[in-house]
Amino acid sequence: MVVFRALGPEAAFVTIAFLAFMMLLGYYAYRKRVGFTLQDFFLASKLLGFLILGLSLFAVQYSGNSFIGYAAKSYRAGAFFLAYPAFMIALLIGILLLAPPLINLGSKRGYTSPGDFLEDRWLGYKPLIIITLICLFWGAFMQFFEQFYAMGYLGSELSGGVLSWEVMVILYSIAVIAYILLGGFRGAAIVQAVQGAIMLAGLVLMLTLLPAAFGLSYSEAFQKLASIAPAKVAVPKKAILYNLWYSVIVLVMLGAILYPQMIQHYLAVRNPKTLKRMITIMFPCYFFTATSLWLFGLFGAAVIPGLGKMESERVVPLLIRAIAGSGEVGYAASIVVTNAILCATLSTVGGCLIALGMLIAKDIYKRFVNPMAPEARAINISRICMIIIVIAGTIAALRPVATIWRLTEIKFELLMQAFTPVVLGLYLARLRPKPVFIGCLVGLVLAVSLTVAGMPKPYGIHAGLWGLIANLAISLGGSYLTKPTEEELRRGQEIIRDSKIFKGAT
Fold it and tell me: What is the model's pLDDT at position 154?
């Protein structure tokens, strides 16, 4: 008989000790700062090695919404959501498209934020810079916001209802803001690297102990799923589902690479050799984690059937409670797994928060509001803004209004409209600022309009992709059918040239 056991006071003690350790690492990073400058606060003066950056980027990308929301999507969709491991590998391909030229440019032209690249590439054309920053801000804030949902589901479920959703969200918010304000990007990256390692350990434990908790092997669980819900393991018969499968892969591949927290990691890399070493760490971590979470969703559908759309967000916490109820070894392991998911959540919250602070203080305040502001003032403004963002995110997430996966789709549909000015701007010298701005604007309007009109996936293709198609058509057509100015063409050629040349430290 399966016993769903809530975690007790000793689990809370371990979690509190862990959070204290994270804050101690933030203080350590504060002591290691190199001056009080924007480059040090937001990029750690590019002094972090490939191991820290690789594990940190992995931890930022895999988050509480992955553990809670993506596993829940696998629960609802069944084997069809094998798109999840596929789009995480596609994401690495997208990283290779954007990161190497941006690393070269950042080193040669001194970028410390996405706004530096946008202003340089697009000759200070404010409408395009602002609309692109809005897309980037949206992506980071929605990723940040999703983590609060995951915090609530995880904490309230595993505590057996002793601690409410609201209490868990508030407690985790206090913890993450503490180490971010202390250590900046250096503190966030070091903490996230540790959190990434703990995440992997928790996954291994959960994969190992789940069969024993339910008395079923994975193959037996899938056979059971085939008998109780055959549609979840059957090959899709409708062509529209295949469109949706490919649409999801493209949506993530072209959207997730534009997270400002990921761009921040690219700019913090000293040279492309460091990126290659980072990828050797990230590839197996990405594939293993995505495949494991997909398996958890299918396993949960077999052993805990009948959960509704919103209830399915509880599937991973329920699986952990079953492990906790399997014996004392399982109970101890469930505490580790719980803290692994906590790591996933806090690492992404931290990464998003420092990136949002960078966008507000460096790319908006210092660029458009007060260009003469001292760097120390900009850093302090970013800290104030981060506190405000945490408070806003906490309030907004106190009651869930949609599944985590749906929030993820909406996030990427608007974020990916920045693909043209950020990515294509690195490769096409003929692109002109005004057509690219109009393309981004039309893409955003189309994506939002289709969703509001109740057509989020026409023909199985996400509204954001239809928006991107319009975006590309206008940006490319407007740029190539009109003659660029000499300055526009020269700047485009300079960017492409410098994106291929690296003269920094090896």
Answer: 63
Q: Is the pLDDT of residue 481 over 90?
A: yes
Rounded Cα–Cα distance for residues 208 and 56 (Å) = 25
- The vertex-23 CA angle with 204 and 206, nearest 5°, equals 10
Which structure tokens are listed for 309? Answer: 């759309």
The closest alpha carbon to 415, from 394, 390, 440, belongs to 440
From 359, 183, 170, 171, select the one nearest 258 (Cα to Cα).
Answer: 359
Angle of CA points 315, 341, 226, to nearest 5°: 30
The pLDDT tens digits of the residues spanning 221-258 come to 999 999 999 988 887 777 677 788 889 889 988 998 89
Domains, the chain: 9-499 (1.20.1730.10)
* Choice between 434 and 268, residue whose per-residue pLDDT is larger: 434
Out of 159-173, 189-203, 478-492, the most confident range is 478-492
The structure tokens listed for 227 are: 């008998």
User: Helix, strand, coil % (nearest 5) of the chain?
Assistant: 80, 0, 20
Decide: 403 and 456 in contact? Cβ < 8 Å: no
Closest CA to 438 of 417, 456, 408, 424: 417
DSSP class of residue 483 equals: P
- The encoded tokens of residue 435 equal 């057509």
Return the SS3 of 75.
helix
- Work out the pLDDT band at 160, boundaries 50, 70, 90: low
Rounded to an integer, the average pLDDT of 335-356 is 78
Helices of type H across 372-403? 375-396
CA-angle at 436, arms to 94 and 494, nearest 5°: 70
Q: What is the CA radius of gyration of the chain?
A: 22
Exposed / middle / buried, residue 27 (Cβ in 10 Å: 0-12, 13-18, 19+) = middle
The torsion angle over the Cα atoms of residues 23, 26, 27 and 32, rounded to 10 degrees, is: 160
